[in-house]
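Below is how a single chain appears once it has passed through the pipeline. First comes the sequence as given, then the structure the pipeline wrote out for it. We keep one example in the README because the format questions we get most often are answered faster by looking than by reading.
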Amino acid sequence: MVGGLAPPPEEDEQERELDAQRQVIFVLESAQLETAQVGKSYQLLNCDDHGSYLMKHKKDPALYRPDITHQALLTILDSPLNKAGKVKGIYIRTVKNVLIQVNPKVRIPRTFKRFSGLMVQLLQKLSIRATNGPDKLLKVIKGPVTKYLPANAKRIGFCERSDLQPIQTFVQQQLDDAVPAVFIVGAFAHGEIDSSYADVEIAVSQYSLSAAYALARITNAMEMKWGIV
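Resulting structure:
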């Protein structure tokens, strides 16, 4: 006893140490974030507003879905998992191989129009700083993404052709709390992710899921695993 106070029980110390090791990283693959000068201004290309422009330049408008990335980011950032401080990193790799690092503490615009303006600013200036400090909330970084992932992390990719496993069962049985988990999710309407750096691939539904819904399943499963309400 020091200063009249008993030291915390050893079990509490061990639990705090284990809790500090619990961390999740998300990689959004093949995001369609492309800017172009349309009229007098630079804009984030999307299928709704730039269909004619895209067809004129012989591009498939159906592929231009930056709204998927917006919804995916909101799902991660709004999750209790992130609010509990367990999301340690978010990375976006675009179809043009631009790698973006997202600070989990960032508050991105709720509306797609304002999000588009933010992405245009980011891709032109290469970083977005906090208004009340020097921290960079969004920044373009040099790839590959693997050099930013912990060496001991378990990297999980998702593929419809892989073995079907309920995500709750997978995270309970296959993920060690002391090992960071990296979830690689496609940020596109159709296609497959580049999972060449994944340690394991799984399917979490017999149906095709949107990126936002797949991320909601992942964050919820991790919250249940760690008792985050």
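The chain has a mean pLDDT of 92.

See the next section for the split statistics.
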